[in-house]
Amino acid sequence: MKNARYLYAGAVVVALIVGLGVWNPIHVKAGGGASQFSLDPSWPNELAAPVNYNYLTWPTPAPTPTAGNFVGRWVQGEVSGVCVTADDNVYTSNRAWEVGVSISGVVQNAESGAIDGEDATPAMAQPSPPEVLFNKNGNVITSGSFGNPSVWPAGTSSGAYTLAAFPGVGASGRSAYMPHGLHGCFSDYQGNLWVAGNGDGIVQEYNPAVAGPLGASATYKFQIGTKDVCDTVAATGGPCSESTDNNNSMLYLNEPADVAVDPEIGPVSGKRGDVYVADGYGNHRIVVFNPALTSKSNPYGYVGQFGTTCGHDETPNGTTTPGTPCEPGTFGQSGGAHPHCVVLGNDGLVYTCDRPNSRIQVFQKSCASFGLTPAGTPGTYNPPPALPAAQPVCAPTRVIYIGTNAQHFPASANPAAVSAILYASARAADVDLWPNVDSNYTKESDPPQYILDADLQSGNAWVLDFSTGNVLSAFGRCGIAPCPGHNPGEFSYAHTIASDSKGNVYIAEVITGRRVQKFVKVFSGN
């Protein structure tokens, strides 16, 4: 992507559509750092409303009710993940389908995101498919939207969730096929869609060309890990939990938050298509797999891993209460996902989110060799010792703290607003590089200019200078300040962030946010 090209084209298009009154971009307030991006409030358009829609049988319609045909308008619950395809279409991962479903008279549990009783259910509102596809204009592509929404009914067992271990409950309410607690997603260089779940032990790969037409009956192409079984001290795994960190299995994950796929040949695997997993709600590692290395003894193609627990969390200024900072290469002990994201840049490096420690850690891809003993070869599993024994730490090439002191913000920022951000404690929940073609970074020739950070702690999202890591501006309409809310340009739990080949940015919100917002680059003065 060439900035000069977009300077001209972007200026002409923006001037035209604003002049016609078609689009009214929302800018941040003055004095809070020059805005690099503006909200496009016209994106997305209304969701699909298929006649006789049934989320359990989609795309097959439900039998016509006695009252005649009905319109089941899709409603998204928590939009946990957002990812961009090679042709700039946008996938969102949605959690609504897991909650509030009554099976055998038992209302199911799950992570969160119910629509039942919350979104005009009498008006036939229906949970959208788990994966919803939008085109670049914001229209839903129903033929590309899919996902099996089934959950385990009461009195069933699955994986480690047996009735013996959980009497009377078992796996009741957990997703029965897709990752429980859908989280990050990634569209790879071959067009496959990968999804992770922070309440499960699996990462799944789907071929949208096959899965889309199948709708609710879509099946995965490849899966890493075992459904409802996580990496624990037991050799056979156990229930998924942040308190059962083991961090050394080639067979099991523990609540993986995010995934990315490398279009280049990996330095450790020697193969194209390394799969980087942020195995981070339960474990504390980036673990690498490659399907080309699968074998009977290595069923998921384990390549290696790096990262381990710090044993505690830092306070926002980079030190913990006893005065001991977390060693570079380790991730915070708690605080909800550690690491929470993994991103591959066109600089050949791996960017990870150490969410509880408010920092981004940047690694060489060769760090994956730390999951192998000396002289180990790719595809030959030589695991590091299990926690709490010492695990090898690969030193990052760079550590970037996110807004942890006043010097990280421009001098023009309001001191009171900066104090409020510091009090809230900014978080590296998810990041992306800009410019960057997410599905295939080799298609982006320009070096990164910004680091984009979705900060669910401060109710905003930040534009960081790539060279210094300092905050340049904010996506929120409030400028450089906490910006919680439900109006356009405000955020309620900004969770994941992604950019397309044109430089547009998409930010998904969870918990009470439950939406995705689009921002376009403003070139004037930048």
Question: How many β-strand stretches?
Answer: 29
Low-confidence stretches: 1-23
Main sheet: strand order: 1-29-28-27
Please state the overall shape, judged from the principal axes of the Cα atoms. globular
Percent helix, as a range, is under 10%
Major β-sheet, in short?
4 strands, antiparallel
Q: pLDDT average, as an integer?
A: 84
Strand content: 15-25%
Q: In terms of structural class, how would the helical and strand content be classed?
A: mainly beta
State the helix count.
Answer: 3
Question: Could you tell me the radius of gyration in angstroms?
Answer: 22 Å
Distance between the termini: 16 Å
Q: How does this structure look, described?
A:
The chain is about 5% helix and about 25% strand. The protein has three helices and 29 strands. It is mainly β and about 525 residues long.
List keywords for this structure.
four-stranded antiparallel beta sheet; disordered N terminus; mainly beta; 29 strands; globular; 526 residues; 6% helix
Task: Explain briefly what this protein structure is.
With 526 residues, the protein is mainly beta. It has three helices and 29 strands.
Architecture blueprint of SSEs:
Elements lengths: L2 H17 L17 E3 L34 E2 L3 E6 L5 E5 L7 E2 L2 E2 L18 E2 L3 E4 L47 E6 L5 E5 L5 E4 L1 H7 L7 E3 L33 E4 L13 E5 L5 E5 L12 E5 L1 E2 L20 E2 L10 E3 L4 E6 L4 E6 L33 E4 L13 H10 L5 E5 L15 E6 L4 E6 L5 E4 L19 E6 L5 E5 L5 E7 L5
Parallel strand pairs: 2-7, 17-18
Antiparallel strand pairs: 1-29, 3-4, 4-8, 5-6, 9-10, 10-11, 11-12, 13-14, 14-15, 15-16, 19-20, 20-21, 21-22, 23-24, 24-25, 25-26, 27-28, 28-29
